Amino acid sequence: MSQPSELVTVYTAVGRLEAEVVRGRLEAEHIPAMLAYESVGQVYGIMVDGLGQVHVKVPRVFADEARAILGENE
User: For residues 36 and 54, what is the distance between their CA atoms, to the nearest angstrom?
Assistant: First the structure.
C-alpha cells in the first residue's frame, strides 16, 4: 500500500531550466514539488540515456491535480 507522502513523478523535463519552470508553476498553485535528477548529467551537460532528464515529483495526494494543471499548458 502506498503512503500518502510518497512522491510520484508528474513530469519529466529535458534539462533543469524546464523543470524549474514546471516546479514554479506547481508551487504557484500551492502544490509542493521537488526535482530529482542524475547529478552527472547536470555537471557535464550530458543529455544521453536519460542523464539530462529531470523528474518533477509531488506527494501522491497532489498527483492528479498537478497533472491536470500541467495538462492545461500543453
Answer: 6
Residue linked to cell 512522491: 7
SS (H, E, C) 14-40: ECHHHHHHHHHHHHHCCCCCEEEECHH
In Å, how far are 3, 5, 62 from 14, measured between CA atoms?
28, 26, 22
Answer yes or no: is 57 within a domain. Answer: yes
Looking at per-residue pLDDT, the higher value among 49 and 26 belongs to 26
Question: 73: Cβ–Cβ under 8 A, 6 or more apart, which residues?
Answer: 25
The more confident residue out of 65 and 51 is 65
**Residue numbers of the domain that contains 49:** 7-72
Residues 2-31 have pLDDT tens digits of 565 799 999 999 888 999 999 999 999 999
Q: Which three cell numbers stand for residue 1?
A: 500500500
